[in-house]
Design brief:
- By secondary structure, the protein is α+β, with helices and mostly antiparallel strands.
- It has one domain: Gyrase A, domain 2, CATH 3.30.1360.20.
- 40% of the residues lie in helices and 23% in strands.
- The protein is built from four helices and four strands.
- A four-stranded antiparallel beta sheet has the order 1-2-4-3.
- It is globular, with a radius of gyration of 13 Å.
- The protein starts with 6 loop residues before the first helix and ends with a helix.
Length: 93
Amino acid sequence: MAQLLSEAEIREQAKVLSGWTVEGSKLQTTRKLKDFIEAIEFVNKLVEPAESSGHHPDIEISYNKVTITVTTHDAGGLTQNDFDLAGVISEIQ
């Protein structure tokens, strides 16, 4: 099981993630896209990195908005896996 990060480690890593916020024990971002089709296309681009890392985000779609939340459920909070996946997601256009 992945090890939980300390509050200091979380604050430090959150500084370098543009567009993400720490919400309790989760990292979260919302992307606003042109329309529903672009939102679904964006979500489809998340499949490969999530599968290859074995770490899957929670995804909420509301027409053209996609909210992505990452946390390590089995560890009960934020781990390095969450920040790694958030970094990869940040690069997806």
